[in-house]
């Protein structure tokens, strides 16, 4: 039986400690590890990193109204769900599935996560014949009803925008294989890296320019592609898996700390580690972060809201 996949944007919460214990301090790390969670805490950001910067990376805004406007995916085919699944292995002819992006110093996770999933869906639906990358720059800068650009947006609205207005092609910073590349330079998210450190929290949203980059030979109007359907999925583990047939080396569970905001990511698989079920997730903080850009988070308990705000869609193929 052929398995199908839908890639989703998932809003997850970032945990920060109360003012009594600095969230990047050795004491806070020790406090978490004393709880003996299913992962080992460590410091992935310099201790002097401003909390305002960390919050700026959580650029997802939830809108219940948006989800009302979307079709609800249900009554899915009764398939045998495997114990583990990795979309990179299921569709090796679609390298975009394993590509890690970098939102840089911009709260654009909602846009990056959306176009990554759209790109994957185009490749999968075309059986690898179409390898078009959807432009995050076009979505980030031109979708005025998605939110506030680098100050956050709604992943569900991003999918609706794709079906209504369409999006052109485009890749990472300084790439020329599409219409509009990402204009914000990659940076190190306070981890050891050859990239310059991410700085500031006031990165302006790029202006909406409906024309291709000067280095591109493409025409903006003729390059636009559209989504066909967009949908939401019940916050049920099996529903997500059926629709998806879409530290590190440890499974994250929240232990201590307060809510910092919502973050959009892409689920590419699942599995079990040391008897703990997890979702395999691609982040947008480049490959220097986490497990080469990926992390695992507890599956099946709507942990940190990972299963309660899932949206996906399918492309229109010419």
UniProtKB/TrEMBL annotation:
UniProt KW Transport keyword: no
PROSITE patterns in the cross-refs: THIOL_PROTEASE_ASN (PS00640), THIOL_PROTEASE_CYS (PS00139), THIOL_PROTEASE_HIS (PS00639)
Signal sequence region: 1-17
Keyword Nucleus: no
Molecular-function annotations in GO: cysteine-type endopeptidase activity
Keywords: Disulfide bond, Hydrolase, Protease, Signal, Thiol protease, Zymogen
Identification of the protein by name: Peptidase C1A papain C-terminal domain-containing protein
Species annotation: Aromia moschata
């Amino acid at each position: 039986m052929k398995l199908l996949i839908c890639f989703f944007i998932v809003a997850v919460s970032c945990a920060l400690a109360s003012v009594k214990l600095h969230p990047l301090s050795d004491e806070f790390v020790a406090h978490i590890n004393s709880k003996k969670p299913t992962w080992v805490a460590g410091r992935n950001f310099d201790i002097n990193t401003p909390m305002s910067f960390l919050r700026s990376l959580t650029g997802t805004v939830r809108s219940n109204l948006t989800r009302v406007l979307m079709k609800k995916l249900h009554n899915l085919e009764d398939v045998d769900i495997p114990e583990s699944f990795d979309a990179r292995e299921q569709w090796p002819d679609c390298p975009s599935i394993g590509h890690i992006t970098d939102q840089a110093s911009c709260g654009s996770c909602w846009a990056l996560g959306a176009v990554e999933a759209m790109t994957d869906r185009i490749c999968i639906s075309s059986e690898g014949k179409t390898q078009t990358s959807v432009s995050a720059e076009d979505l980030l800068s031109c979708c005025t009803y998605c939110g506030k650009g680098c100050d956050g947006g709604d992943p569900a609205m991003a999918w609706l925008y794709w079906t209504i207005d369409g999006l052109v092609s485009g890749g990472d910073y300084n790439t020329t294989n599409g219409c509009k590349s990402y204009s914000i330079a990659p940076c190190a998210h306070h981890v050891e890296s050859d990239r310059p450190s991410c700085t500031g929290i006031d990165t302006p949203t790029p202006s909406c320019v409906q024309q291709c980059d000067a280095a591109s030979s493409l025409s903006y109007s003729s390059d636009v592609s559209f989504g066909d359907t967009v949908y939401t999925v019940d916050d049920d583990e099996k529903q997500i898996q059926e629709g998806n047939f879409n530290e590190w080396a440890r499974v994250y569970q929240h232990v201590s700390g307060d809510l910092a905001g919502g973050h959009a990511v892409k689920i590419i698989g699942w599995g079990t580690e040391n008897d703990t079920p997890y979702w395999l997730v691609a982040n947008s903080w480049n490959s220097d972060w986490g497990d080469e850009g990926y992390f695992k988070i507890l599956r099946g308990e709507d942990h940190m809201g990972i299963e309660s705000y899932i949206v996906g869609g399918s492309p229109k193929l010419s």
